[in-house]
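Sorry to interrupt, but I need a hand with the structure work. Could you write out one complete protein record for me, on any chain you like? Just paste the record in under my message, thanks.

. . .
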Amino acid sequence: MLSQKARYGLRALVELARADGAQLTSAELALRADAPRKFLEAILLELARNRIVVSRRGKFGGYILARQPSEISFAEVIRIVDGPLALAPCVSRTAFRKCDDCPDLATCSLREALLRARDATASVLEGYSLADAAVGQGAEVFA
């Protein structure tokens, strides 16, 4: 399940994409994303560390996207904020490990379904960018 933290982060990034290169303050982003300012600031700091946004400090500071909105996928942002997209660690491509209670990966009766779910989820989220969300493309996919 997508965390509230990821939802706020994605909403703020979509607002930055809509700003078309203009810098927005954390207060403006919090208002536009309907997110608590302090919580959003922590999320934006994490996104800055991972080079999704660039922050400028000072009286005239704010945030801008570090890359073009079309180059930032929902999958990338969710992985930064929430971690792997996979429902179980044994099917994760970015954080693979054997499940603690699984005796054998090869005979696991759950793994095939979890692999398919991970692949389908990754396919949709990797193919949907901030630019798509900024103009409302594919909204029916997430309805």
Remarks:
- The helical segments are 4-18, 26-33, 37-49, 74-82, 111-126, 130-135.
- Confidence is low (pLDDT under 50) at residues 139-143.
